[in-house]
Amino acid sequence: MTFFRPLLLHGDGGADYRGFFRILTEAHIPFAVTTGMDWLTDGRRDAYDLVVAPDGAPPELDAWVEEGGRLLVAGTDAPSYAATRARVISRPSRPARSRSILPGHIRAPGR
């Protein structure tokens, strides 16, 4: 059996990070969290199948992605390699407002 091994970048620890943390946890997907980029140079470079970057992609990931690493980026700024390697899934034309349906549980677009 092959396991999927995601790495969640801590970033500023804000709402985006907490949202991805919650999604992975509630889906029972084992994952690692890192507060830095030392995993790129300390022998763990090939230990992860996907890096989740909730606060945008740090430039240190450029080479890792160019070598075939998979990256899921959330944020308003496209990574530097977006024109050649990335596929933008969605880009809102204006910031979305949201309202809580169940406090702290589900978020839906505002009206």
- CATH class placement: Alpha Beta
Q: What would the CATH topology be?
A: Rossmann fold
Report the C-alpha radius of gyration, rounded: 15 Å
Largest sheet report? 4 strands, parallel
Strand residue content: 15-25%
Output the helix-strand order. EHEEHEEE
Structural class by sheet pairing and helices: alpha/beta
How much helix, percentage-wise, in residues? 10-25%
**How many DSSP helices?**
2
Distance between the termini: 45 Å
Query: Which stretches are low in confidence, meaning pLDDT under 50 for 5 or more residues running?
Result: 98-111
Tell me the CATH architecture.
3-Layer(aba) Sandwich
Total strand segments: 6
* Average pLDDT reading: 75
Number of domains: 1
Shape assignment: globular
Report on the structure:
- The chain is built from 2 helices and 6 strands.
- With 111 residues, the protein is α/β, with parallel strands linked by helices.
- The protein has one domain: Rossmann fold (3-Layer(aba) Sandwich), CATH 3.40.50.
- The strands form 2 sheets. Strands 2-1-3-4 form a 4-stranded parallel β-sheet, covered by helices on one side.
- The chain starts with 5 loop residues before the first strand and ends with a strand.
- The model is unreliable at 98-111 (pLDDT under 50).
